[in-house]
Amino acid sequence: MGESTIEVLERIIRSDGEIEPARAAELSELLDEPPIKDVVALVERSTATRAAVVLRLLSRRRSIAVFDALDAVHQADLIGALGNADVYGFFAELDPDDRVSLLDELPAEIADRLLRALERTERDVTGVVLGYPKGSIGRRMSPEVALIYADMTVGQALAELRRTADGLETIYTLPVIDRDRSLLGVTSLRDLFTAEASVAVAELMDKPTFANAHDDAEETARWFLPLDLLAMPVVDDSRRLVGILTVDDAQDIVESADDEDTARSGAHEPLQQPYLSTPLLKVVRSRIVWLLVLAVSALLTVQVLDTFEDTLAAAVVLSLFIPLLTGTGGNTGNQAATTVTRALALGDVRKRDVAQVAWRELRVGLTLGSLLGVLGFLGAWAVYGLPIGIVIGSTLLLVCAMSATVGGMMPIVAKGLGADPAVFSNPFISTFCDATGLIIYFLIAKSVLGI
Amino acid sequence: MGESTIEVLERIIRSDGEIEPARAAELSELLDEPPIKDVVALVERSTATRAAVVLRLLSRRRSIAVFDALDAVHQADLIGALGNADVYGFFAELDPDDRVSLLDELPAEIADRLLRALERTERDVTGVVLGYPKGSIGRRMSPEVALIYADMTVGQALAELRRTADGLETIYTLPVIDRDRSLLGVTSLRDLFTAEASVAVAELMDKPTFANAHDDAEETARWFLPLDLLAMPVVDDSRRLVGILTVDDAQDIVESADDEDTARSGAHEPLQQPYLSTPLLKVVRSRIVWLLVLAVSALLTVQVLDTFEDTLAAAVVLSLFIPLLTGTGGNTGNQAATTVTRALALGDVRKRDVAQVAWRELRVGLTLGSLLGVLGFLGAWAVYGLPIGIVIGSTLLLVCAMSATVGGMMPIVAKGLGADPAVFSNPFISTFCDATGLIIYFLIAKSVLGI
């Protein structure tokens, strides 16, 4: 049912933002019907113009919820299509951390204008978040945190919460501090709520899980999420409470980091906005640089083959196996690379594990290579004779061992050089394995076939 | 500091679980020091034997938190290494949905034994979850949900919550029901807590965001997370409340689905447990089937080249460009495939968008192909003469257009056939683009060079 209402809406509001005149009257009513998630999906699939029309026609409460659910890049795209009043309204309703993410995507003068239009207190809390470096968790936390002191009783703490709840991002996870604002522990509304009013807050306090505002945002979010907490305190270098990181913000951080890794393992940059609503040239731009760099690296293979042109001319049959051998090398390398890239992202593997990883992958590669090598030997022997069988079989063995080892080490080496492991993974590994695989192939062929 | 304690621990507890005797006395103290997240990381990097020793030495509260933070597959691995008493203890402490995930990973007789050791009420709630099919959201929800009726006052609701809080997964997001248990709306502890006791719950109720217990788990979790809610009600087919889905469970679902997609785009199956603690043969097994299938498909390229062997023999120079051309085709195809696979997973693209996607990718491919084609033409012309320049340039143009279109459509077609889009993506697209790219190449070469 929700689905079909959305389809009706897609028909009535055309992609250029024009509304089918005969149906204009029903629109507000139709938009009020489907669940928020369907309206979000509609907006995500729409051009900026249509998305702006939809947002304007929604009730205020629903339009804020929808705008809130969009990525910062998509929000920034919409800013141009929305009227000023709407923009100021949405901007003021965002949490300070989401506000900062959006500011990061906007041209400086628009960002400035938006900031100046904020109320003073809102501008101040936004300023706190803006003060932390990009990529730090301080930039993604909420500075609007409840102040619960360890010397309060449960009754006092609950009264304080009731008084200040309105301006707070969460009142469920409650950092407990001393009068210097130093973090002492964590409690929760659930614990306070089920305790007697006269109990001291200090008695309901757990050892805190917390982050430093300068910690790397992605790393912090990655270890935070599996702990299944709703939020955790963020402190400064002297362990004073400066904010709180909520699970939805941690989730956003991990989601966009994963997007980036997926994109790069597929040899392009992330689009950062829904595919169908991304302008065509933006899609081309996200891919062309990678393609060019990879094509230029592939010149290496032309070079290698050029060197062995005489061998190739002497036995044209060798060229038949080029795609099979380079393909298998590339696949083996990618298997190792994706596994290790993921393990690095999750923190399961660290930089100093490089030797352990190389040793594992060498053994895995040799095992895989033996299996494929035997099959390759038998197949090529049957069709093209014993010498070719020996060449193909032993090349497969060596190429698999080499590719798995290189593929496993490359992401760690990239991280050691300060690069994103995903950048140096799959496509580069394929190209590298192509070139070295071909060298292995022709050296073996020359010695076995005696050319 | 936490880091170094962990390193000391890694030294004292050897990977076979043996403890360095001289240091045994310090152990409990050392294990009490580092934050939970570091102990989780230690356990994830450890063999099952060492992990079991660490879990046994932790305080009860900490060991439960650590066990809880592990993936179900990893938990299942540990079951064998832990003593019976520990296993029953951990199992009883898990939430019903996490318990079911673990049961799914265990051999039937062990699963049975664990279930029978549960207290009756716990066994009953576990049974509710077990009643829903694998892959449904009912299997991942918590059936222990607060019963807040719309005709209660805030005071009554809060009293009811205080009374039952202990057995509930969350008391923050509160589904509101009528006396038939039909879902009417949602409210929150925050709203109740800041309202007057005499207000009717019905007045604080929002239109609910909810899922049906039979809905697909991954799809549901994907649309739920961006809404930044802490939990949402789950209902049966007659819209009666049966449970609640919390953000951490949704997060787990998405995380393991992403793991699977990443693995498959890298041509292997997910390990489902931390890389360094996975036995070597399990790593081999996660890769060998893919490698074999891909190698067999690559026989297609041998076939194609065999067909054009005369052309190759007549102009050996053509073989120099084989890896460059197939590589570029594969890269272009993968770019399109990863983008569309991700968009499908996020719900940005649906099955019926296939024509729109194909049309977008054709235009993107033609744009990319024109750029690369011009460069390829100029380069090949300079080194190998005009005819080869024309062959390389026009092959690049056509291969890019073809690969992008096929790469973009393949994941959607796979989904239409009921397969995981990621399975049919990158590696198969590379193989397919290799073979068709070679055909394009040799047909162009034959007609331009006149062989």
UniProtKB/TrEMBL annotation, chains A, B:
SMART domains with a match to the protein in the record: CBS (SM00116), MgtE_N (SM00924)
- Chain's role: Acts as a magnesium transporter.
Q: Where are the transmembrane segments?
A: 288-305, 311-328, 362-384, 390-410, 422-444
Q: Where is the CBS domain?
A: 141-203, 204-260
Give the superkingdom in one word: Bacteria
> Native species of this protein?
Corynebacterium halotolerans YIM 70093 = DSM 44683
Location in or out of the cell? Cell membrane; Membrane
Q: What is this protein called?
A: Magnesium transporter MgtE
Supply the InterPro entries for this chain: CBS_dom, CBS_dom_sf, Mg_transptr_MgtE_intracell_dom, MgtE_N_sf, MgtE_transporter, SLC41_membr_dom, SLC41_membr_dom_sf
For the keyword Magnesium, the answer is yes
Q: How does it assemble?
A: Homodimer.
UniProtKB keywords: CBS domain, Cell membrane, Magnesium, Membrane, Metal-binding, Transmembrane, Transmembrane helix, Transport
Q: Which family is it part of?
A: Belongs to the SLC41A transporter family.
Has keyword Coiled coil?
Answer: no
Q: Which GO terms describe its cellular component?
A: plasma membrane
Short name of one Pfam family:
MgtE_N
Q: Which GO terms describe its molecular function?
A: magnesium ion transmembrane transporter activity; metal ion binding
Q: How does it sit in the membrane?
A: Multi-pass membrane protein
